[in-house]
Amino acid sequence: MKIQHLAVVFIIIVLPISIVVSQYVNNNIQVEKKQSEYDSILLSSTNDAVEAFQMNTLSNAYSTINDSKIRDISAAVNSFYNSLATAFGSSGYNIQDLNGYIPALLFTMYDGYYLYGDYQNIVSIEEGTQVYSTQNSNQLETSNAIKPYIYYSCEYKGGASFDIIVNYTLDNYITIMGKDNNGNIVNRSGYFINPATVTNINESQGTLQSHGVTIKPEKLGEYIEAIDTVKLSRGTTFASTDVAYYNYVYYNNQKYYLDTTNSNTYLESLSSYNGIRLFRMNNNLRVYLNENEAQSFAQFLGFNSYNEITVDNYLDRSAFKYYKESKEFSEYVINIFNGQNLTIQTESYNNQLNYTKTANGETIPIHARTAYNVNDIFKISESNDPEAEDSVFNEHRMDVIISSIESNLMSIISNFNIHQNAGYEFALPVMTEDDWYKITNNITIVTFMQGLPIGNYKYYSNYSIVVNSKNKEFISRDSIILAERETGNRDIDVTRNYHNPKCEKLNDENLDNLMGYSNIDYEQQIVTYDITKPDYSIETNMLYYYPHSGSGAYECIIGKEDVLYTSDNLIKGTQFSNINDIETTKAGKTANAKVREAYITALAREKYNLYKVNAYFENY
Hints:
alpha+beta; 13 helices; 620 residues
């Protein structure tokens, strides 16, 4: 073939193909870049939502109350959309536009979850009266809102009259409601444990054995910033700040402090002080107990009079109560379910959802359940300890949560398709097992974004999940931090390292006097307040303090490279086992007994004192 012919072939055939292929590859590269860019924006906006939720809840004493919780979630939703709109502003999208690409937002809480999404508004307010629309459904206004709260619940039937609904949580706290096999009404709440692990209960001393460690009364304390109202001789008042370390005891899920840090002269100048050195905090104000309150509190502690309370005997028994009451509750639950041939009645659980890929029709299970016998869920033994991650109870608990969330997400996204009529099919994406684990064991925010064009006739479709590890609503197995005990003084600049209980270095050091607290107790607290000065002028101040001082250990808090044990290792006292055989020299190591005692005690104490919606069922 002549060279002229080759040139013609190249110009007419090869060159156009090369140009087309090059353009195609370039377009795919641009699509991938756009996909990555949108992933980053979605994750960043979800992080902003979590941070907004944290800021509101950590500074809000009533953050666990439902009305307050909804306000905090609404603020998180606004933060998410504002962040998203800012990032997409250069692309010409505003908040209203982006609403059409967000089929759902998921907020998982301790005992249930909220969904944010579309609904058709049939109610309007006319002259202060609710007016219900009679229009065709296609003419109704579409609005976005937070849906009613959905509990993690499952219904079980057994014998002739046995019909029990169990409300689950992110840990082993459950509520059972319904009828037992004899037709008796059942309404009880509590922590479900293996009662055989709790032994040697001494009520008078407040001690017992759990998982082989001794649970005993604790001396608790923390730094607080008190914004006190001080009485002046001319009858006016002004605010005075005071940062000091106070010992406290939990009472009715609230901290009651013992004041031994200030002189009588200063105390007598406080508006709320009445001569009794016991107080609780209310909006950063010290509220001292009156005589009746102090007497009731003293009797709760086991004293005849509040005058008997001293620093040495001001001890908290929450961990002891957690295990004692949980043992009693668990024995009751085991007896209720004993001998029942259980069947699950919850439709969303029985009808495990599948996701069909529209591209090739392939059907993939959204979540593959672990095989277990339903009758084994409430048969508690050493191998089925509800406090452990590897128990049948815990596997089932996660399945109940996942099936409920799957079902309702499918519904809300399906409705989004109807309302939007966008020519794009919105669908629940296939979520990884790791992400489901995060959702079922943590407070999380999950955001979904779909339908944005990204080129080559392709559309963006993904989700982002961010764990809220710093909240007042839930104490997870990973929420506890250990450090050497603080003795307390008026200078909060005490240098010490705090550790993850799973830290290998901490377990090897064999430290005495370890103490555990929640991770949020190591977060900086912000106090904003107005003061009326002696000259009657108003001054606004902002103060910062840490309930517990110190810094995170590099090995396990900052670097997170020295975390060796699992939560089950710490609770059960089992040996470290290396799945990947990378560090065979560590195989067979067991967590330090002192670390285990401090961890198990702190976890029990903090869980016991969480605010719980169904707590009124605990002593039904």
